[in-house]
Amino acid sequence: MAPVVEVRELTKSFKVPVRQSGLGAAVKSLFDRKFTLVDAVKDVSFNIDRGEIVGFLGPNGAGKTTTLKMLSGLLHPTSGTATVNGHIPWKRDNAYLRTINMVMGNRHQLSWDLPAGDTYKLHQAIYQIADNEFERTLEELSDLLDLHDLLTKPVRTLSLGERMKCELGGALLHRPDVMFLDEPTLGLDVTMQHRIRDFVRSYNLRHGSTILLTSHYMADIAALCERVVVIHRGQLLFDGPLAQLVARFAPVKRLTVELDSADADLGDLGTVVAHDGFTYQLEVAKEDTTEVTSRLLANYNLSDIAVEDPPIEQVIEQVFTAE
Amino acid sequence: MRLFRIYLLSALLHLKEHLIYRASVLIWLFSMLLEPVVFMMVWRAVALAEGGSAGGYTQGTLTAYYLALMVVNHLTFTWIMHEYAYRIREGVLAGQLLYPLHPIHRDVTMNATYKLLGLVLFIPAFLLLSVFLKPEFQFEPWQVLAFLPTLALAAAMRFLMEWAVAQTAFWYIETSSFNQAYYVATMFFSGRIAPISMFPDWLSAVARYLPFWLGVALPVETLLGSLTPEEVMSGMVIQAAWLAFFAGLVAWVWSRAVRRFGAVGG
Questions:
Q1: Residue A10: its pLDDT value, please?
Q2: Using the beta-carbon criterion (under 8 Å), do B10 and A122 form an inter-chain contact?
Q3: Is the domain of A266 the same as that of A287?
Q4: How confident is the model at residue A261 (pLDDT cuts 50, 70, 90)?
Q5: Does one domain contain both A216 and A86?
Q6: I need a labelling partner for B118 at 20 to 30 A (CA). Which of A179, A295, A322, B84 fits?
Q7: E strand or H helix that includes residue A96
Q8: Do B9 and A101 count as a contact with CB atoms less than 8 A apart?
């Protein structure tokens, strides 16, 4: 089966004016304007199969949102190709726009002053959704997102999380095959993040929709995405299973041990990253894990030991700082 | 059928939005209403000082001119260019571009509903001022019949012209100076400061070919009978030519604008 999303050497450069500080430089720039080309995305290639949820990772300014905007038809690339559902996104055919949607955590499509239910009716007309299908989808989305009481309140009176739920509901009324979610949990509290995550997962399972998701919250990525695409300074660093990312980029293992002593010196075994009473956390080089574990068992009275990968946030940070 | 349903629902939503900000809408409408009333008072005073007429207009015909202009200008003006840069900067346009629908349709309904709502104020104001200021209207049936198509053409032409001007926001971050230049041109040439028959002949002749006069004063002068049927007909032909030009311009500029769009603000 052909991939739903095919991206080949996608590049987007922005022409950015360069200006020194000071009045002299400002006057000089009137006669001699200087520009520099900034590659927001450079030669990025990847495929996504139908039904996949792929996490798009990268620090601020890495090019994640720019890529999503190109794939949703908002931006024209400088070079490269992409097809989504067989369409070239930036041609912006209505037939294409009917099959996708993009939700941006800090932007909204709903009318600020009116209840979301009113804008939903307009969505129904724009996407030509039959009445019975609209009712059925709305009922399903209302159940999944717990929207029932929210749809009659003006959007501006809703909390951030409630607004995001309404935005998601509106974005999915036409049952898009492909969804681009850009920071959908931005600024939400932990409970609401969970709700949104659960919703995305169950929606994907029910409808087999393909989802490309960016998030600064690694918990979103870890909970939803088996596969991640890592982008940094516009370039693709990694594309594969999340576990493989950790294996490849985390040079250490984290050992959590519980001893019978609160003042043991474990400094010669590895780096002690946390110590609370009888519990110690050590980071040791991956290849030394077996030896350090044996030495701990031989030389200390252990009541518990756990060997884990370091937190995913730490791995990601290492990936980006190493570059 | 799809577009009709979209227009209907969109108009309903915009009407609800306008009604929420009713105080703001009312203040805007009052300020729109005041401008022609102020110019009318000024020119009435000039006519009085000059022995009863100014530039061929009596106090009564000046009143009729400005009362008709008040309604026509309300029905043909747009404010799109003043908020387009905001839409781009704040990511509003990015949201609109995700729909399988050209954003111009939203502006059509937003404008139409505002115009309809405004008539609730403009019609009573027209009637009230007519009672007190005694305008001299001399309606011939053909003038009223010709007024309607000139008004429709003026509204469509001016909408597309101002939508095209609004697109400068894709190329320039700061567009208020463009908007101000457009405002000055339209104030002068549209007949809002003074009927263009008061201009020197050569300037008046030039103004009759410009979209500013065609977008406001042509329907007004058609209704008042200041123009011959031949002049009205040629005015409508020029209006239609400008309409076609601006429709083409909007399509051409838009196709370049979306390529240039940086989709900032999100």
A1: 94
A2: yes
A3: yes
A4: confident
A5: yes
A6: B84
A7: helix A94-97
A8: no
| Structural domain ending residue among the three candidates A206, A229, A247 | A247
Chain B residue with Cα closest to A114:
B17
Q: What pTM value is reported for the model?
A: 0.85
H/E element, A31: helix A23-31
Interface of B with A in 95-154 (CB under 8 A): 95-101
Report the 10 Å Cβ neighbour count for A30: 7
Whether residue A191 sits in one domain with residue A316: no
Nearest CA in chain B to A186: B266
- Pick the residue of A85, A100, A124, A126 with the most B CBs within 10 A to test the interface with B by mutation: A126
- Using one digit for the tens of pLDDT, what is the confidence trace for A106-135? 667 888 899 999 999 999 999 999 999 999
Instruction: Answer yes or no: do A113 and B20 touch at CB < 8 A.
Output: yes
Chain A residues with CB-CB distance to B1 below 8 A: none
Q: Are residues A45 and A24 in the same domain?
A: yes
Residue A30 and residue A131 in one domain: yes
- B94 interfacial to chain A (CB closer than 8 Å): yes
Which residue on chain A is closest to B261 by alpha carbon?
Answer: A75
What is the mean predicted confidence (pLDDT) over A245-258?
84
Res B266: pLDDT: 37
Q: pLDDT tens digits, residue range A66-89?
A: 999 999 999 999 999 999 999 999
Q: Is B262 on the interface with A (CB under 8 A)?
A: yes
Task: Give tens-digit pLDDT for B81-110.
Answer: 888 888 888 888 888 999 999 999 999 999
Listed range (A19-23, A171-175, A319-323, B158-162) with the worst mean pLDDT: A319-323
Q: Residue A308 in 3-state DSSP?
A: strand
Give the angle subtended at the CA of B38 by the CAs of B34 and B44, to the nearest 5°. Answer: 140
The structural domain count of chain A equals 2
Percent of chain A with pLDDT over 90: 42
Q: How far is B72 from chain A (nearest CA, A)?
A: 30
- State the CATH number of the domain containing residue A41: 3.40.50.300
The boundaries of the domain holding residue A295 are 251-321
Q: Which of B3, B5, B99 to mutate to test the interface with A (most CBs of A within 10 A)?
A: B99
Nearest-CA distance from B96 to chain A in Å?
A: 7
Residue where a domain stops, chosen among A232, A247, A262? A247
Q: Can you tell me the mean pLDDT for A132-141?
A: 93
Contact B13 A118 (CB under 8 A): yes
